[in-house]
């Protein structure tokens, strides 16, 4: 199989490369660390606004929304190139990639003006209120209530694993507005100001970086929310949930595939030219087999995604994309585990340059990366849930 793009798409790639080369924030600009997925230092706000003004933030959207009406193939090239950069297009990924598209899809013109555009311009940041202590992967089991009193909802309940909640300006929050309806039918979505009285956030320290938490518990006690902040129709939040998760997973496979390729490049460099005092992994047949196997799996992941995207570009459906999140997150974890095992005690000390993430060092050990990789098998739908989806919706197996 030969993959290639037409001349217009390659010209689009060339223009993007030239623009990013001239505008990407330098290391000197990026001195302030990013502390969570809703923390936006000044340099990150300037960078996202620069992308928005130039039409490179969401190129598939119209210019007034930070895009340039790019074709599906041009968008594919955009995400290819973006995944190779050391700087993400936003430091508030849920705000840009999940919440803003949902507001554009389901919100009123006034809500798009008040919330979508400021988010695109990096003026406000968001957290996503989905998971609860008893409703993780089963969103329909949520219990956080919002009772309508006149022109206001009153919200009570708790969310957990809420990324960036302690830094976010707003919460895109799923709440139960009809306790008598079947659990999938009594859900609504509210836009909640995180500065509202009655909201308390409690960051959850992480084993790999106890000083910089991203996950939070969020507690709501008699929090008043204007009724005009309801997104979509009352009690029709389940459809919005499906759309939000679809936005989240849209291009994750490509970022994951390119990220794994970058890890493999660094692993090969370390295996063939290790630092002083570290054994040369390339001399061992087992290590060579491990690297070769990981490379084959990474290419299979990437090509499977291309196949599905080509179907979508032709107007079809892509059942392959149901498998990509599972395969990508599991492969990253497997690669980190095998690299750590191959290095033995040296794996805990050997540094590996990774793309900057929320408050973590650029220089991380393979063992630390292995611990972090478990989050990828949970966020966006656990591996167990993904296997159930594949079994039922792709393979057509009966439910037990």
List the defining traits of the structure above.
single chain, 400 residues, alpha+beta, Butyryl-CoA Dehydrogenase, subunit A, domain 2, 3 domains, four-stranded mixed β-sheet, 11 helices
Description:
By secondary structure, the chain is of the alpha+beta class. It folds into 3 domains: 7-91, no CATH class; 126-235, Butyryl-CoA Dehydrogenase, subunit A, domain 2, CATH 2.40.110; 250-394, Butyryl-CoA Dehydrogenase, subunit A, domain 3, CATH 1.20.140. 44% of the residues lie in helices and 14% in strands. The strands form 3 sheets. The chain has a 4-stranded mixed sheet with strand order 1-4-5-8, with helices on one face. α4 packs antiparallel against α5 (109-120) and α7 packs antiparallel against α8. The longest helix is centred in the C-terminal third of the chain and has 29 residues, at 285-313. The radius of gyration is 22 Å and the shape is globular. The relative contact order is 0.10.
């Amino acid at each position: 199989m030969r993959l290639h793009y037409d001349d217009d798409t390659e010209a689009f790639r060339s223009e993007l490369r030239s623009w990013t080369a001239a505008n990407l924030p330098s290391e000197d600009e990026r001195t302030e660390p990013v502390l969570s997925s809703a923390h936006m230092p000044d340099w990150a706000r300037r960078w996202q606004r620069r992308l928005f003004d130039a039409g490179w933030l969401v190129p598939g959207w119209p210019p007034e929304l930070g895009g340039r009406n790019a074709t599906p193939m041009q968008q594919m090239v955009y995400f290819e190139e973006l995944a190779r950069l050391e700087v993400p297009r936003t430091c508030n990924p849920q705000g840009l990639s999940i919440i803003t598209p949902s507001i554009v899809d389901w919100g009123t013109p006034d809500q798009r003006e008040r919330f979508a555009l400021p988010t695109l311009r990096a003026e406000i940041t968001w957290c996503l209120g989905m998971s609860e202590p008893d409703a993780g992967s089963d969103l329909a089991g949520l219990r956080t209530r919002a009772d309508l009193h006149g022109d206001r909802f009153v919200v009570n309940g708790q969310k957990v694993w809420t990324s960036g909640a302690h830094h976010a300006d707003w919460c895109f929050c799923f709440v139960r507005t009809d306790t008598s309806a079947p659990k999938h039918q009594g859900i609504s979505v509210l836009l909640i100001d995180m500065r509202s009285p009655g909201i308390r956030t409690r960051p959850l320290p992480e084993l790999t970086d106890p000083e910089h938490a991203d996950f939070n518990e969020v507690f709501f006690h008699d929090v008043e929310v204007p009724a005009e902040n309801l997104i979509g129709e009352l009690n029709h939040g389940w459809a919005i949930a499906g759309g939000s998760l679809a936005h989240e997973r849209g291009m994750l496979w490509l970022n994951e595939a390119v990220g794994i390729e970058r890890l493999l490049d660094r692993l090969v460099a370390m295996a063939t030219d290790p630092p002083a005092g570290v054994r040369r992994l390339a001399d061992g047949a087992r290590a060579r087999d491990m690297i070769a196997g990981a490379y084959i799996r990474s290419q299979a992941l990437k090509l499977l995604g291309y196949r599905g995207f080509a179907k979508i570009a032709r107007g079809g459906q892509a059942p392959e994309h149901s498998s990509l999140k599972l395969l990508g997150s599991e492969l990253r974890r497997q690669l980190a585990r095998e690299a750590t095992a191959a290095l033995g005690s040296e794996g805990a000390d050997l540094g590996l340059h990774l793309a900057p993430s929320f408050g973590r060092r650029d220089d991380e050990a393979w063992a630390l990366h292995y611990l972090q990789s478990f989050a990828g098998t949970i966020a966006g739908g656990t591996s167990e849930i993904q296997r159930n989806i594949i079994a039922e919706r792709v393979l057509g197996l009966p439910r037990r």
